[in-house]
Amino acid sequence: MEHPTLPASQLLHARIATKAHFFICGLLFATWGVHVPTVKAQFGLSEAQLAWLMLAAGIGSLISLARVGGWVARHGARPVVLCGASVVCASLAALLFAPGYVVLMFLLFAFGLGSGGFDVAMNAEAVAVEREMSKPIMSSFHGFFSLGGLAGALIGSLVAEAGVRPVLHVALTCAAGFALVWFAARAMLPTHATHSPEEQHQGFRLPHGVLLLLGLLAALALVSEGAMYDWSTLYMSQELASPASIAALGYAAFSGAMAAGRFGGDWLRGRLGASRTLQCSAWLAGAAMLLTLLIGERWAAIGGFALVGLGLSNVIPVLFSAAARVPNVSPASGIAGVSGIGYLGFMCGPPLIGAIAEHSTLATGLLVVAFFAVLVALLTPHAMRGISRPDATKVPH
């Protein structure tokens, strides 16, 4: 939709607000991630029961994903961001108060429903800000998600060391996140920037051809990323007998490396090209995960998780960039199709690993991360062959 160029100060405020939303989203995801062992212990859950909870969150996200595009088109990104974030904060804050497994499953379903809306709406806002600024800045937004994950993990480690009750930590984090989301939303772009009446009745449509292959790569990468968010802390505490304060550092190392890699992603892609960046990143993630599991020592795991994060950091931004350059497909449609399939992987991967862990060990389940990273590296040349040139080399220096 055509509309006048917005003032530079308004764009700056919208960019800061969007970074804040990505940061808070990462913080909330990390708060759930570091307390997976808490939930497991408090409710006496097996790996299979925990996997079903994560599947409930995934189903909530899929339902949200099927509708959120129409919601954003009809109402703009701001109300969907506010609604989604509010549901995430409320359901997460209530988790440790759940009276039983059924209520816990309902709350995780609500968490997934809200996170799907929050995630898609803030990405729609990020695309609008990037379009208004006429330069590639998407990687930096995703970098703030990783910074939020790092902050959440470090806070989790510190409060565990200080003996703060988990229920208090979760409640205060959710309250702060809720307040910051609503404060930052005041600076979001006007409704017309993300409001598209002509698309408000369109639902999720499965892509095909090159877009389908790019989407499958995104799903493989996000299975790995989701696994690290949901299972890395439990691996540290359960398989490597790490105390809570040390276990949270594995998550922190992964998130910190993800953030660092994403802030340097545009520079790297400008020098290696999209295809080589994808391949090198995937090989690094796969090799690091395999070595981490083979060594099986807590400090090696912290370093290994950092390398996995560095390897995975730019896979999704590069795939989104490629999706926007598929011939005969609009950039918005390309990104939406790839992100939709990728999101399925992000939410469905952790239950897959939980099911494997139930019948073997969590270390065996996490081998999926290495295996899928290798698949991304091997399939990248086929996927990128159908992408129009020039490659993504026009980046800020």
From TrEMBL:
Q: Where in the cell is it found?
A: Membrane
One Pfam assignment: MFS_1
Per the UniProt record, which residue ranges are transmembrane?
20-38, 50-68, 80-98, 104-129, 141-160, 166-185, 206-224, 244-265, 277-295, 301-323, 335-356, 362-380
Q: Does the keyword Membrane apply?
A: yes
Q: Where is the signal peptide?
A: none
Q: Which CDD domains match?
A: MFS_MosC_like (cd17393)
Could you list this entry's UniProt keywords, alphabetically sorted.
Membrane, Transmembrane, Transmembrane helix
In this protein, which residues make up the domain named Major facilitator superfamily (MFS) profile?
A: 14-388
Q: How does it sit in the membrane?
A: Multi-pass membrane protein
What protein name applies here? MFS transporter
Q: Which organism is it from?
A: Uliginosibacterium aquaticum
